[in-house]
Design goal:
The chain is of the alpha/beta class. It has 15 helices and 21 strands. The strands form 5 sheets. Strands 1, 2, 3, 4, 5, 6 and 16 form a 7-stranded mixed sheet that branches. Strands 17-18-21-20-19 form a 5-stranded antiparallel sheet, sandwiched between helices. A 4-stranded parallel sheet has the order 10-9-8-14. The longest helix has 19 residues, at 317-335.
């Protein structure tokens, strides 16, 4: 039996998804050596089972629907071609190109399952070289992401179920698909598979879809899903499931639905169960509480950091990559004794996690939102003014006949600045960054009046929103 190997790096990153890759990259930019430990595919959930493949499944259907909204046009598509295009984005679930990037950047890649074994030490098992011990001179960073939550539905252990992984990597389109959960994943994949040829039934325990967003956003998405033929069952509990031959029977009170596949889209939780956090006095299964530089709280010595979903702060790929950049820079600064800039919007402070988290729901209509909802702003004690208008400008009328959308601004009247914005409609995702800049920059509403939108683009909705804001209520 071979002896365990041991290596030392400045930074040991556990988890090689987009977040871990960015931590390692920014540590290297700071002049430190870095290693990434990954048990699956380098690039992680977003590259192979979440963001990229799911949006590839959605995009063709959205484009065809957009064409059909223009007069004198027809369009159709081949579902097999959509699956093939999806496969191209995942490189057929090969991470060769990601490994080439990492090694080309000077980042070491170690395969296997990692566990903390003590201060600055990580044991890696199950890799091609057997057990290996990695020691960090400066920092260990946990970027282990999140895992799906299985709901307590009787009979789930007797049937075949999908998580988002099985859905986004499906090789065939099921004739009948059940979706449990009306959040982002449930709504996006329900629409994707309905347009690819499934008959979809979506069951949501609560009374609305997309409950974390503005109410009108969920209502508009629900109406669109129903119009496309999705059997939408809101405020309904899935009482149990049972096998029905090769199919699955979903029992909903006094009715039942038979499906060929059942997608569980009931949320995710931070992945800290088997990372060894108990060795440093933390509780497995719980999110890692971090300060704005990513330093894990409750661990002495300023050596353990975390970023991304594992912290529970803002479980979105782009927000995790933002936190990763902060963490990499903070580790670099501490390594040379530089004082950290931890004030609001400081170089080493992930301030945006608290006030300006952008998110897009890639349904049709799209939902693009940043900052606080009306309810969140009021709960925070802000002197709120809400501006709502229909999405009706020259740019939107050119985008689609009968364009139907809605826009909302949430304004802090005490400071005269925007604290939240939501757009719902076809092709609104690309408008979101302007709102994000306005929130992050705390641009006064009076100054926004001088940001002139180009005509005829959909951004003209900003002019209409500002006109409505300037009109006495």
């Amino acid at each position: 039996m071979s002896e365990p190997q041991s290596r030392t790096f400045d930074v040991v990153v556990v988890g090689g998804g987009a977040v871990g890759e960015n931590v390692a990259d920014y540590a290297m930019r700071a002049g430190l050596s870095a290693v990434i430990v990954e048990s699956e595919l380098l690039g992680g959930e977003c590259s192979y089972w979440a963001c990229m493949p799911s949006k590839a499944l959605l995009r063709t259907g959205h484009a065809v629907a957009a064409v059909r909204r223009l007069p004198g046009t027809t369009a159709d598509f081949d579902p097999a071609a959509v699956l093939a295009r999806r496969d191209s984005f995942t490189h057929d679930w090969s991470d060769e190109s990601q490994v080439e990037w990492a090694t080309g950047a000077g980042i070491a890649v170690v395969r296997g399952t990692a566990r903390l074994t003590g201060e600055r030490t990580v044991a890696v098992e199950g890799g091609p070289v057997g057990t290996e011990t990695l020691t960090a001179r400066r920092a260990v960073v946990l970027c282990t992401g999140s895992v799906p939550i299985a709901p307590p539905v009787p009979g789930l252990d007797t049937v075949r179920t999908w998580s988002s992984r099985e859905a986004t990597s499906a090789k065939e389109i099921p004739a009948r698909l059940g979706v449990l959960g009306g959040g982002v994943v449930g709504c996006e994949l329900a629409q994707a598979f309905q347009r690819l040829g499934s008959q979809v039934t979506l069951v949501q325990h609560g009374p609305r879809l997309l409950a974390a967003l503005e109410r009108f956003a969920g209502e508009r998405v629900a109406a669109a899903l129903r119009d496309e033929g999705i059997d939408l069952r809101l405020d309904r509990r899935l009482d149990s499931v049972s096998p029905a031959g090769d199919a699955i029977e979903m029992h909903l009170g006094d009715s039942s639905v038979t499906v060929d596949e059942l997608l569980l889209a009931t949320g995710r939780r931070p992945n800290t169960d088997s990372v060894g956090v108990e060795v440093v006095g933390l509780e497995p299964g719980k999110p890692l509480t971090v300060d704005d530089s990513g330093l894990v709280q409750g661990v002495e010595g300023e050596w353990l950091y975390a970023a991304g979903d594992v912290t529970g702060r803002a479980p979105l790929t782009h927000q995790g990559k933002y936190a990763a950049r902060i963490v990499g820079a903070a580790i670099g600064a501490r390594s040379i004794g530089e004082e950290l800039d931890l004030g609001p919007w400081g170089e080493h402070a992930a301030t945006a996690d608290h006030v300006a988290v952008p998110q897009v729901v890639f349904t049709d209509p799209e939902v693009a939102a940043v900052g606080l909802t009306e309810d969140q702003a009021r709960a925070a004690g802000i002197d709120v003014r809400v501006v709502d208008i229909p999405f009706a400008v020259g740019g939107s009328s050119l985008q689609a006949d009968g364009y139907d959308g809605e826009a909302r601004l949430v304004v802090d009247e005490g400071r005269g600045v925007l604290v939240g914005a939501t757009f719902v409609g076809q092709d609104v995702a690309e408008m979101l960054h302007a709102a994000t800049i306005a929130v992050v920059g705390e641009v006064p509403m009076a100054r926004l009046w001088h940001a002139v939108p180009a005509y005829p683009t959909m951004n003209e909705v900003w002019l209409r929103l500002l006109e409505a804001y300037r009109t006495p209520s």
